[in-house]
């Protein structure tokens, strides 16, 4: 699906490189990467993402607002559930621009619109969970296990995603020596956007990552999915080791 987040997509790769440059304190190099991404976009999903990151680099508020509104327009034209989670972030940033420009009325309107989109996720799935545990159809996955990312942490939620490659990554990073597995799962109760990724690097929850305090029921095991290479897994382990900040538990 062209409107689905894919870390192997060239535009997303360029934006991720740009984010690394931002973190290194190299804004000029970051903007070069975001401009390159914009110039190489091939569809409205890619244009929405590239425009959003170009907006982040603009010091001039009017320029920033122009690129944010461009990004917003692509989201609206896409009219796709997979990108609507970006709307609260974009409307909030547009409101902040209007506030900085002294237009309190347009700021208020955009803050109010942002709040209307801050609702429980409406994603219908299918949903996936990646692990190395050997489980059976009908088994329940529950919270309270050790975190794969902070060994001393007992997680209060069970995590899942609507993207197969996201579950595959989780399986590759999971503890243990067992076979990497991706299960098709079904939430038994309400769930929420994963706050550890939502509105962080990318606007909204483009990775369609969720969590629940309640169990997930295993419906089936997915047999056909693309595993990361040992080199790719090594790179992810390094990224996680370098990652700063607390997990929102």
What does this structure look like?
- By secondary structure, the protein is α+β, with helices and mostly antiparallel strands.
- It has two domains: 10-116, Serine Threonine Protein Phosphatase 5, Tetratricopeptide repeat; 127-242, Rifampin ADP-ribosyltransferase domain (ADP-ribosylation fold).
- 44% of the residues lie in helices and 12% in strands.
- It contains eight helices and seven strands.
- Strands 1-4-7-2 form a four-stranded antiparallel beta sheet.
- The chain starts with 9 loop residues before the first helix and ends in a 7-residue tail after the last helix.
- The mean pLDDT is 88.
Please write the string of helix (H) and strand (E) elements: HHHHHHEEEHEEEEH
Shape field: globular
Q: What is the name of the CATH architecture of the largest domain?
A: Alpha-Beta Barrel
Alpha-beta content class: alpha+beta
Residues in helices, as a percent range: 40-55%
Summarize this, please?
With about 250 residues, the chain is an alpha+beta fold. It is built from eight helices and seven strands, in the order H-H-H-H-H-H-E-E-E-H-E-E-E-E-H. Helix 2 packs antiparallel against helix 3 and helix 3 packs antiparallel against helix 4.
Question: What tags apply to this protein structure?
Answer:
249 residues; 3-stranded antiparallel sheet; alpha+beta; single chain; ADP-ribosylation fold; 12% strand; Serine Threonine Protein Phosphatase 5, Tetratricopeptide repeat; 7 strands; 4-stranded antiparallel sheet; 8 helices
